[in-house]
């Protein structure tokens, strides 16, 4: 793990009482299942960047309340195929999207380091929340389907709250739900901007899960970097046991 210490040199360490966790591509291999489903739909993997761009745009619109999740899926898929040069009628859009979704749901899996971390957090008595930029009931169904529901004291979903990461409101909502202060809380996610920096700016300990092995120097001051969830217990324990850094 690569901690950036400068943000911690002027304040006393406080007890870490809670950990917030992103879901997709942090605990669950969302991109892997989504790529498998897209390949099954279009026959190749080359369209993945276009799918990601179209998805990000439409999910943001769904979270803002412009339309519900199912409408988002259909509009996203229609827009995606238009980018590929196919202009589909609504019935064909729904048929293809339902087929893609069925493949994706069969492909969901948790990362190998997910369950050991959750077992450790539960054994340690640390409160745990999921904080996810998803859009509602399907995210809860996914969490349940892969056996994660029992590990969370609260689940905070952008599509239900109407506010998404990196807005401080979603992080502060999780802290209120857990009855902890932001300074007592770690948030971990695979997105440097939305998760780690967003959490840091909300007064939490922001941790970037750098699964792709990107340059750790991309992380700004006040953000911690780990390459695996297996590194988080050591980070939390060190934060708990290290004397106040203002004395250094």
Automatic annotation (TrEMBL):
Reported cofactor(s): Mg(2+)
Example GO molecular function: hydrolase activity
Hydrolase listed as a keyword: yes
Highest taxon of the lineage: Bacteria
Kinase keyword on record: no
Gene3D superfamilies assigned to the protein according to its UniProt record, in alphabetical order: HAD superfamily/HAD-like (3.40.50.1000), Haloacid dehalogenase hydrolase-like domain (1.20.120.710)
UniProt cross-references to InterPro entries, sorted A to Z: HAD-like_hydrolase, HAD-like_sf, HAD-SF_hydro_IA, HAD_sf
Keywords for this protein: Hydrolase, Magnesium
Pfam families linked: Hydrolase (PF00702)
Enzyme class: hydrolase
Enzyme Commission number(s): 3.1.3.-
PANTHER family for the chain: 5-AMINO-6-(5-PHOSPHO-D-RIBITYLAMINO)URACIL PHOSPHATASE YIGB, N-ACYLNEURAMINATE-9-PHOSPHATASE
Listed NCBIfam families: HAD-SF-IA-v1, HAD-SF-IA-v3
Protein name listed in UniProt: HAD family hydrolase
Organism: Kutzneria chonburiensis
Top-level taxonomy: Bacteria, Bacillati, Actinomycetota, Actinomycetes, Pseudonocardiales
């Amino acid at each position: 793990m690569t901690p950036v210490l400068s943000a911690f040199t002027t304040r006393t360490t406080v007890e870490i009482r809670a950990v917030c966790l992103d879901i997709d591509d942090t605990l669950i291999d969302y991109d892997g299942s989504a790529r498998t489903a897209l390949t099954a739909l279009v026959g190749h993997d080359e369209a993945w960047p276009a799918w990601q761009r179209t998805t990000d745009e439409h999910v943001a619109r769904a979270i803002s309340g412009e339309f519900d999740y199912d409408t988002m899926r259909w509009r996203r898929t229609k827009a995606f195929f238009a980018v590929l040069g196919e202009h589909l009628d609504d019935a064909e859009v729904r048929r293809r999207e339902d087929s893609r979704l069925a493949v994706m749901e069969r492909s969901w899996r948790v990362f190998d380091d997910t369950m050991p971390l959750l077992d450790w957090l539960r054994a340690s008595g640390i409160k745990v929340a999921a904080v996810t930029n998803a859009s509602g009931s399907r995210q809860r169904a996914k969490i349940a389907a892969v056996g994660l529901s029992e590990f969370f004291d609260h689940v905070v979903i952008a599509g239900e709250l109407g506010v998404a990461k990196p807005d401080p409101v979603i992080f502060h909502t999780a802290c209120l739900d857990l009855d902890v202060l932001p300074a007592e809380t770690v948030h971990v996610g695979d997105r440097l901007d939305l998760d780690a920096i967003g959490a840091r700016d909300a007064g939490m300990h922001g941790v970037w899960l750098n699964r792709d092995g990107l340059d750790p120097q991309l992380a700004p001051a006040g953000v911690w970097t780990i390459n695996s969830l297996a590194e988080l217990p050591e980070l939390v324990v060190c934060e708990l046991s290290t004397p106040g850094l203002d004395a250094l």
